[in-house]
Structure formats: structure tokens, C-alpha cells
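We close this part of the discussion by returning to an individual protein. The sequence in question and its C-alpha cells are set out directly beneath this paragraph:
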Amino acid sequence: MEHIPGKIFLSEQRGVLESPSGKSVMTFNAGSYYNEHKHPFSSLVLFNDEVLSGGKQLPLILTSPSHLIILPVTGDLYFDGLWGDAGEVNVGEVKINSGLPEKEFLVTNPYPSDEVSFFQIRILDESIPENVSWPSLSFDLAASRNRLIEIPVGVQEGQQNTFRLSIGQFDGRAEAFYSLFASKNEVFLFVISGAFEVEGRLLHPRDGLALWNTKSIEIEALSNHATLLILELLKT
């Protein structure tokens, strides 16, 4: 097998920030967490595993022109763009907003006594001209078992996509191949649940893997209901 350069971000080495509203587990440096080996990967500047306590709210403020991705994992959320964009984001949906610095968002746990968890992802994009909200995008993992689902990403008129987003759930020993648009692009894979072997690298739950200088990626699930998220960062 040809060796593809990459870097593993182990789950147990992530930063943890706790607050009265819940907990943020950070793959990359964020907030008060800093590790010299956890700098953002290319334009992927934030990948947080968020836990929000019952009835609590989490304010989000962009510090750079970014695409904000919210992906519920357990429990539904209420998302408010504080800009006329508000509504539920349910499990099986992805919410994407494009925002400029100082743009504010508010995520609320509507359950008074139960925790909810979700991923907060930010992708830097200096070409964003204005704040734009996109409708929630739905996907069905059970109906698309053992294959990757590409979730369509909206762009503003006259702009090009800067990332691709895919997700898939697999049975044990099921295989998949991911083809990049171009070998100059970079890819970040994140294991939501289960275990995978990706290009000879063993990944456990909540492990991340950054890869570059490749045109395709070979993936094998090592457990049932193994779920994988893939972000391809497009280079112009």
C-alpha cells in the first residue's frame, strides 16, 4: 500500500473545557486550550465535540469569516442565528451558516433535564462576502448503510465551494473508497462511533485523521454501526 502522509488526532489527547452549561472537547486549539501539536488543519480551524446540559444555552461568536457547521449527535437542538434565522436542528440533520467576524449564534438544549451532544465545526473562508443561512440538510444513515453520503453544501452566487461534507454508517468489514476532487485538496476524517482502518491507520471513536497528497482514500469499518464523517477542504 502506498503511504499517504497524514496525522492522527487521538480522542484521549483532546482538550476539555467545562462550564456551567456543559463541556467542550476540542480536537484543535481553541479558547484557553493550547497544545503545540494541536494547531488547526488547513482551513479547518475548529472541531469541537460539545455537550450541552439540560435547558442550557451555548453562545457562539465567529472570530473570522467562517462556515459554521452544527451536527447533532444525541438529542435535537434549537439554533438561533440572532439574525432572523431560528429553528430546530434534529438528529439526522446538518445546519450550515456562512458568517463574518462578530457574527453571533445561540444553540439551546430544549430538554430541561437531559444532555444533548453535537459537533461544532468551523471552516475558514476569507471569500465570504456576507452572512448567509442555509436550510437544515437531512440525511438517512440507515437507508444508505455501507456507503458514504455526500451532503450538498450551499454557496453564494458567484462563489465556489470550499469544502465537501460526507457521512456514512457501516457494518463490520464493510469497505468504502473516497475519491477527492483533486490531489491538492486535504481531507479530515472523524470517527463518530465504532472503529475504522483508514489507509493502514487504526481509528477509534472520536479519533480524527488528517490526510493530504492523495487522490483517493481506502476505508474499512472494523465494527458494526461504525459511523464516519469526512471533510474535504478544497484548494483553488
User: Anything to note?
Assistant: The domain at 15-131 is CATH 2.60.120.10 (Jelly Rolls). The radius of gyration is 17 Å. The chain has no helices and 22 strands. The CA atoms of residues 5 and 236 lie 21 Å apart.
